[in-house]
Amino acid sequence: MRWQPKEIHVHPWLRPTVIACIAVIACIAGIVGITLAVVLPTSTGEQHTTAYVERVIDGDTVLVQWLEGGNLPDRIRLYAVDAPELDTPGSDEAVAFLEEALLGKVVWITHYNRKSYNRLLAFISLEEGGETIQQQLLDRGLARELILHPEEERWK
Question: What pLDDT, in 10s, does the model give residues 2-16?
Answer without folding.
Answer: 545 455 565 666 666
